[in-house]
Amino acid sequence: MQNIEEIYREQAQTVYRFLYSYIHDADLSEELTQETFVRAMKSLHRYNGKCKISVWLCQIAKHVLYQEFEKKNRNKTTTLDENMEFSTYSTEELVISSENKKEIYKMIQSLDDTTREVMYLRFTGDLSFKEIGEILNKTENWARVTFFRGKSKLIRRMQNE
C-alpha cells in the first residue's frame, strides 16, 4: 500500500477535477480536495482495495461536497448554485451558447438525481463513461445509457419550448 503522500501526488488532480465538475470554483475545489485527503488519511486503514483508489477518493470527495452543500444551505449565505457555470465537451452534440446556459441548467435540475449526477460528471467534468460508472458503482454501459437518455430529455424539452 502506498503512503498518503504518494497517493496525493498521483490522485489529487483527479479529485480536484471531480469536485470542480460540480462547483466550478477553483478555490473551493482546492479546499475540498484537501479536506478529502485529510479524511482519506484518517480512514486509509479501511480502504480494502476492491475498487481503484481514485474511485474511493472520489466517493469521499462526494461526501465532503454534500456536507459543504448542507453547510452552505444551513448558513444561507450563498448557495453553490450561484457560482456554478455550465460547460460542455466540444465534441458533444448539445452545443450551448452562453445565453442558454441558465435554461439548460434549470432543465438539468429537473432531471432525477441519478441522471442529473451523470450529466454533471459528463458535461462539466473530464470524466469518461467508465470513470462515471466506477464512481457511481455501475457499469460503463449504464453510464452511457443514462447520459444518452438524459441528453435526449433535454433536447426534447428544448424543442418543445
TrEMBL record:
- What InterPro entries does the annotation carry? RNA_pol_sigma-70-like, RNA_pol_sigma-70_dom, RNA_pol_sigma70_r2, RNA_pol_sigma70_r4_t2
Membrane spanning residue stretches = none
Domain RNA polymerase sigma factor 70 region 4 type: from-to ranges: 102-154
A Pfam family found in this protein is Sigma70_r2
What are the RNA polymerase sigma-70 region domain coordinates in residue numbering? 8-74
Q: Does the keyword DNA-binding apply?
A: yes
The stretch of residues making up the signal peptide is none
Superkingdom is: Bacteria
This protein's UniProt keywords: DNA-binding, Sigma factor, Transcription, Transcription regulation
Does the keyword DNA-binding feature in the UniProt annotation? yes
The record's section on PANTHER family has:
ECF RNA POLYMERASE SIGMA FACTOR SIGL, RNA POLYMERASE ECF-TYPE SIGMA FACTO
Please report the name of this protein according to its UniProt entry.
Answer: Sigma-70 family RNA polymerase sigma factor
Lineage per the UniProt record:
Bacteria, Bacillati, Bacillota, Clostridia, Eubacteriales
